[in-house]
Specification:
The protein is an alpha+beta fold. The chain has one helix and five strands, in the order ββββαβ. The chain has one domain. It starts with a strand and ends in an 11-residue tail after the last strand.
């Protein structure tokens, strides 16, 4: 799933996916400067906690969600 965020003239993309090979939940942030960071989680619970933290942090940093639907508690779309 891909979520898009905007802050003034900056754009950020957040991706969530499941890696079938490693059996890990993956969170990838594509920053406005072109850099990318990847986090991997062994359990869905850890993944879910991190998504909630990230969503709260983005809101605190004035990022506006502009598509698609907001994070669900399990990290996938509504």
């Amino acid at each position: 799933m891909i979520w898009l965020y905007q802050r003034r003239d900056q754009r950020m993309r957040v991706e969530t996916r499941y890696d079938n090979v490693t059996e890990e939940f993956v969170l990838v942030r594509h920053q406005p400067d072109g850099t990318e960071s990847t986090e991997r989680f062994q359990t869905q619970d850890a993944f879910r906690v991190r998504l909630k933290e990230l969503c709260a942090a983005l809101e605190a940093e004035d990022w506006s969600h502009n598509g698609p639907p907001v994070f669900m508690s399990d990290g996938w779309k509504i």
